[in-house]
Amino acid sequence: MPDLLAVPNVSTAGDEAVLRRFGEAFGRAATILDVHSDADHGRSVFSLAGDPGGLAESLLAGAEAALEALDMSRYAGAHPAIGALDVCPVVWLRDGDRDAARTEALAVAAQIGGIGVPVFLYGELAREPARAERAYFRAGGLPELWRRMEGGELQPDFGPPLPHPRGGATLVTARPPLAAFNVELEGADLAAARAVAAELREAGGGTPGVRAIGLMLSSGRAQVSTNVHDPLRTPLGAVVEEVRRLAAPLGARPVAAELVGLIPAGALVDYPADVPIRGFDPDLHVIERRLTGRTD
Q: Most C-beta atoms within 10 A of its C-beta, which of 182, 208, 244, 295?
């Protein structure tokens, strides 16, 4: 049976009691490999492993818990978000499991739509190219999503025609592993971080497969927050070196990094020693090692 992953994002850093509720829900029929909670971004990212059917059961339980625990009208995180369960990708590790991941993602999408949350398919499940990027749905935040749906401009793939009053909407796809990777800059303000992100991301003519935004952390340090869609083709070291190159003319430099969730081992090729990844443990955060030690 295929071994699939899922990386649901919930729109809260939450207190311990809230995160326990999510852990119980997502762990119903799947193994929780990692939990990353970030108060600046206003999100918590769960990394799950499971088999088809059981993974969908756990993701639906997490979606239900999000409706009970969160109210998107109060959302104040720096990370763009339109839903309590904001994104819900199902991940295949082997090419032979791609169809199983797609089938599981579509099942999850239908089930989440069935509890009253509109679901939009993105990535390779998008119904048309314009809907492939998450930014297409997130632009302007939840108020703009309401406007577009009320006006009939935007219709969900599953679920009701308007956002859930508390839960907003959820984005679902199936994909191979990516790297959610953040680089902190010394000597940069928000404008500089945004300028680096604009040149780094693929949409701005930068590195293929890289999505990036610039923001300020509560620590006062600027951050370039990225998703690297093919971390084997573009390893994290290459991202750091490109950030270094773009930041230098602005008088800034990368000094630390953060990994959200797990990465494939190949993403670490030629990673520079002078930009440490905070809290990184290869036994916990490298997919191949983590799955070797998995217990159900």
A: 182
Q: Which CATH architecture has domain 4-175?
A: 2-Layer Sandwich (3.30)
Is CATH 3.30.70.580 the classification given to domain 179-292?
A: no
- DSSP annotation of 127 reads S
CB 223 within 8 A of CB 185: yes
Question: Whole-angstrom Cα distance, residue 222 to residue 226?
Answer: 13
Residues with catalytic function: 79
DSSP state of 180: E
Annotated domain spans of the chain: 4-175, 179-292
CA angle 137, 139, 144 (to 5 degrees): 85
Short-list 219, 208, 193, 197, CA closest to 40: 219
Asked if residues 34 and 19 have their Cβ atoms less than 8 Å apart, the reply is no
- Kindly provide the b/e burial profile for residues 18-56, where b requires at least 16 CB atoms within 10 angstroms of the residue's own CB: bbebbbebbbbbbbbbbebbbebbbbbbbbbbbbbebbb
pLDDT, tens digit, for every residue of 45-92? Answer: 999 999 999 999 999 999 999 999 999 999 988 878 999 999 999 999
Contact predicate 83/168, CB 8 Å: yes
What is the per-residue pLDDT for 79? Answer: 79
Token readout for 83 is 């839903």
Bridge partners of residue 216, in order along the sequence: 222
Burial of 295 (0-12, 13-18, 19+ CB in 10 A): exposed
* Start-to-end C-alpha separation, the chain: 14
